[in-house]
Amino acid sequence: MKRSVIWSRDALEELIGIARHIAKDNPEAARKVAVAIRATGKALGQRALGRKGRVSGTYEKVVADLPYIVVYKFIAKPTGGEALVILRVVHMARDWLPETWPPA
Fold it and tell me: Where are the domains of the chain?
């Protein structure tokens, strides 16, 4: 089932922050990481294959070959059907307890 994908402000800010941090040492690697994260989000709209999330009502998808997790949820669209909202992009090394978000 194809769904529209919506990036939350938090997720976009985290994606930009990740790319900026990596770009300090390696701009090309930063571009590749950002592309991979965005591609993961886009693919979730085609086929949402993720595990149950640590925060109720969410799901998590690991970005292939990278230490990042895309956190998402589904919402009902006013016109019918559902959309997928990407809530956060989190590095796997972050402290992240159930039912909490890691500090921004």
Answer: 5-91
